Amino acid sequence: MSAESQPSVGEMMAAMVPMVSTLNLEFLETSAERVVVALPDQPAYRNHVGGPHAGAMFTLAESASGAIVLTAFGDQLARAVPLPTHAEIDFLKLARGSLTATAELGRPVAEVVAELDSGARPEFPVRVAITREDGDTTGEMTVIWTLRPND
Description:
This protein has helices at residues 9-16, 18-22, 54-73, 109-117; strands spanning 26-30, 35-39, 80-91, 99-105, 123-132, 137-149. By secondary structure, the protein is of the alpha+beta class. Strands 1-2-4-5-6-3 form a six-stranded antiparallel sheet.
């Protein structure tokens, strides 16, 4: 299969995670080092103060974390399934308008794969910053992921 016919990470995420399509998330950058996902401003998903609902912000950040895991460990999917095991989010400032989530892995890919190779079930953090259009950080999330070996 040629690279041109393979689905993008955003297309794969939308197919695997229906909330990605529901919220109209846009995958702006996807690499094993960094993923950037945008949540457009949509009146249907605003909260009581006019900004994106906390659930939409959580989904934005968790989707960015999932996309970086898929990008970084996609070549391991035949032998392990990635699963989030813990997530923590801090809401720092009032969010208004469109938001962007930027995810970065907290451990080197090679280190995680080596742990999987040793027979262990590796865990690793993904850190996500949620920013407004003016660049201010409105929230931060850390998601702990694992690669569960297939039986």
